[in-house]
């Protein structure tokens, strides 16, 4: 059969403002022992941890908290969370937080079910289908991790990210509660919002795109274009916050099928070596990658520019993002390593024109 396109995500999704208070009502009764995985500060600071624990307690669920997830979580952190799930006989994991907490929680749900260390799972060629019941509650609007099978874990020695993704690692349930995203600072709203935009644009342009993901990507790009300036200027505009959360989720569904592109592949180095937040790294690189792709897919790039009403670089500037790489003290060695690591990734190979390491160096430095 030729030209066969598939779209499928198994996650049950809920959009509910203030829904965190009632989350226990969404869970199946077998989730007796729950591991709640969060970042180190924000979930507690803004009261989200207390709200969820109260809700779970009211329905008789037992909850243990793992609140040690750092930004761009390491394999070791995910492993530590998985070990707690095993020790406590957890039958469900809830990830509450930004993409970092959700990705670590997703890995813990897999490690907790298999009893195999995350390091071994990452190296395994066997099909892994086991996973504890997994619930994702995003508090940022950007990664769309609640709609993907991916868990991005950092290998800090090799300056790169590993991706734990199994056939069955999509969340079972996702709760999109826009009120949880209103505590984001201006910078966090910007950096995470552009990550959603990057997912939509990269997924739209990659050679793995399909007619289903194209429609989703176009709509995610449009929703971000209409709402991102608003959430930055008016952090309490819950309508705009909900739209951004929706765009992030839709863009997540896109990359769940298409993967990202050379943009994310190069960005991991900027994040892990230069400390540039994940979304911002993509924002800095996206215009340069789109310019390269324009040589191969000019019609799709024109559609993106039509929706944004300008090119990607100008759109980023309208958000106050300086896209010049000269701000990051990158040596020639940095650029070469960044390009070499990225050229090896399958997302770069699926980028139209499959840029080689040398071609990446050229497009990053021209
Ligand atoms: P993040 O690393 O999860 O969080 C960034 C910062 O925001 C942290 O300091 C966090 O605090 C804080 N924070 C989170 N929610 C907040 C809120 N509502 N109010 C105030 N502060 C809040 O950022 P992210 O951009 O969402 O996630 C990035 C990670 O996701 C990267 O590791 C990236 O590789 C991954 N990612 C995954 C996918 C996927 O498909 N799985 C896709 C794209 C990116 P605390 O740490 O204290 O909570
Ligand atoms: Fe991303």
Q: Which properties best describe this structure?
A:
alpha/beta; six-stranded parallel β-sheet; two-stranded antiparallel ribbon; globular; binds NADP nicotinamide-adenine-dinucleotide phosphate; binds fe (iii) ion
Fold topology:
Layout: E1 12-15, E2 33-39, H1 42-45, H2 48-58, E3 62-69, H3 75-87, E4 92-97, H4 99-114, H5 118-123, E5 133-138, E6 150-155, E7 160-165, E8 173-176, H6 186-205, H7 211-233, H8 238-258, H9 262-274, H10 278-293, H11 298-308, H12 312-318, H13 332-343, H14 346-349, H15 357-365
Parallel strand pairs: 1-8, 2-3, 2-4, 4-5, 5-8
Antiparallel strand pairs: 6-7
Bound molecules: NADP nicotinamide-adenine-dinucleotide phosphate and fe (iii) ion.
Question: Your description of this structure?
Answer:
By secondary structure, the protein is of the alpha/beta class. The chain is built from 15 helices and eight strands. The strands form two sheets. It has a six-stranded parallel sheet, sandwiched between helices. Strand 6 and strand 7 (160-165) form a beta hairpin. Helix 7 (211-233) runs parallel beside helix 11 (298-308), helix 9 crosses helix 13 and helix 13 (332-343) crosses helix 15. It starts with 11 loop residues before the first strand and ends with a helix. The model has no long low-confidence stretch (mean pLDDT 96). It binds NADP nicotinamide-adenine-dinucleotide phosphate (NAP) and fe (iii) ion. NADP nicotinamide-adenine-dinucleotide phosphate binds at residues 39-43, 46, 71-72, 97-101, 103, 139-140, 142-145, 148, 150, 152, 161, 180-181, 183-184, 188, 192, 195, 252, 278-279. Residues 39-43, 46, 71-72, 97-101, 103, 139-140, 142-145, 148, 150, 152, 161, 180-181, 183-184, 188, 192, 195, 252, 278-279 line the site of NADP nicotinamide-adenine-dinucleotide phosphate.
């Amino acid at each position: 059969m030729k030209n066969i396109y598939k779209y499928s995500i198994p996650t049950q999704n809920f959009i509910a403002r203030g829904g965190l208070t009632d989350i226990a009502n969404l869970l199946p009764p077998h989730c007796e022992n729950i591991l709640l995985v969060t970042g180190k500060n924000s979930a507690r600071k803004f009261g989200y941890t207390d709200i969820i624990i109260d809700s779970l307690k009211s329905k008789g669920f037992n909850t243990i908290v793992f609140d040690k997830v750092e930004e761009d979580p390491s394999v070791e952190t995910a492993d530590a969370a998985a070990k707690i799930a095993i020790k406590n006989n957890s039958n469900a994991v809830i990830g509450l937080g930004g993409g970092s907490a959700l990705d670590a929680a997703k890995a813990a749900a897999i490690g907790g079910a298999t009893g195999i260390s995350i390091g071994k799972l990452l190296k395994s060629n066997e099909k892994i289908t086991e996973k504890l019941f997994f619930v994702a509650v995003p508090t940022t609007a950007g990664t769309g991790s609640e709609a993907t099978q991916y868990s991005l874990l950092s290998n800090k020695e090799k300056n790169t990210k590993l991706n734990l993704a199994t056939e069955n690692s999509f969340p079972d349930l996702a709760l999109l509660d826009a009120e949880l995203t209103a505590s984001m600072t201006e910078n966090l709203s910007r950096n995470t919002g552009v990550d959603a935009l990057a997912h939509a644009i990269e997924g739209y342009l990659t050679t793995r795109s399909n007619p289903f993901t194209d429609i989703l990507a176009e709509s995610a790009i449009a929703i971000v274009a209409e709402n991102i300036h608003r959430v930055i200027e008016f952090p309490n505009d819950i309508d705009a916050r909900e739209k951004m959360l929706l765009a992030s989720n839709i863009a997540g569904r896109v990359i769940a099928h298409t993967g990202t592109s050379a943009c994310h592949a190069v960005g991991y180095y900027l994040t892990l070596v230069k400390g540039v937040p994940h979304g911002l790294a993509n924002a800095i690189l996206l215009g340069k990658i789109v310019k390269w792709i324009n040589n191969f897919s000019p019609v799709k790039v024109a559609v993106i520019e039509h929706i944004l009403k300008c090119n990607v670089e100008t759109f980023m500037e309208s958000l106050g993002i300086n896209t010049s790489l000269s701000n990051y003290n990158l040596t020639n060695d940095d650029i070469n390593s960044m390009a070499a690591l990225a050229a090896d990734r399958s997302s770069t190979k699926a980028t139209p024109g499959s840029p080689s390491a040398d071609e990446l160096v050229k497009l990053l430095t021209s």
